[in-house]
Amino acid sequence: MTKKIILSLCFLLAIFANAQDKKGISFQKISLETAKQIAKKENKLIFIDVYTTWCGPCKLMKKKTFTDAKVGEILNKNFVNLAIDAEKEGVALAKEFNIVNFPSFLFLDANGKLVQYDFGYYNAEQFLTIGMSVANKISNSAVPKTIDMVKGKMVGDKIPDFSAKDHLGNMFSTSNEKEKLVVVFIRGQWCPYCNKYIESLQNISPELQAKNAKLVIISPEKPEFIEKTLEKTKTSYTVLYDEGYKIAEAFDVLYTPNAKILDLYNSKVEGFAESRSDNSGRLPVSATFILDENKIISWRHFNPDYKERAAIEDILKQL
């Protein structure tokens, strides 16, 4: 009987010890692309411990810092965590981020863009401070804007170069465009006002060409949904997928609808949540901008009412 009790206690202690070991950072054995998908879905960042097998501080952090319960709590809550050997599967990653020191720590957003870089040994308390700082940096800058808060970039503002792919995967970049650009934001193929407006623009293609201008349509929807826009409007203009809403943010036209409207869109619009980069439901104001050859805004039409669009005669007059 005593022997059975002792064995039971040993078994329970082993389980307890194993549970203690799992209180630290939960590193996932997945690719960076999969980590991006999870980060977008769960609204998290990505943390990558870039190490080598011969690095003493790397081993010490793995043993002491990454197993700390508080560190694990913060990192697991806010990040998708990866540990990558810089000399094996992480060779390309180390080259991309110019990593020569180990251990190195990459904090990325859900699109793989670098948020913060650190390297060297940190104890648990020090690393906890870094993790919390990065998480707070993002959360403080990601306060969703209501439609009343977005104002759109103004005439005279220069728009940074942006790139995006069309429905065929062809890359469009403003850095390669020498002519004037007419940039039109739409909400998606499900919006009848957007489709009607795109159709109304079809007849001005020769006039745009004569004025050394190109019309570009920006959609928050994925390529397969842009295909539906093309089918419904028969447009020949370039329609770009604004993945991660980067272009809409650059023009300050991105907003989050209120809860009532979001519920309506999610319940009534088929595929609304699945059609875009994340489940936030964010949308662009249906604005139109004219950029000159230097990518400076020379004219704009900005109206929060999605039923009101730029008049064709006004666009042509301003080119």
Automatic annotation (TrEMBL):
A Pfam family: Thioredoxin_2
Keyword terms of this UniProt record: Redox-active center, Signal
CDD domains tied to this protein: PRX_like2
Signal peptide from the UniProt entry: 1-19
Annotated InterPro entries: AhpC/TSA, Thioredoxin-like_fold, Thioredoxin-like_sf, Thioredoxin_CS, Thioredoxin_domain, Thioredoxin_ResA/DsbE_sf
Residue spans crossing the bilayer: none
Keyword DNA repair part of the UniProt annotation: no
Thioredoxin domain location: 7-136, 153-319
Listed name of the protein: Peroxiredoxin
Organism: Chryseobacterium profundimaris
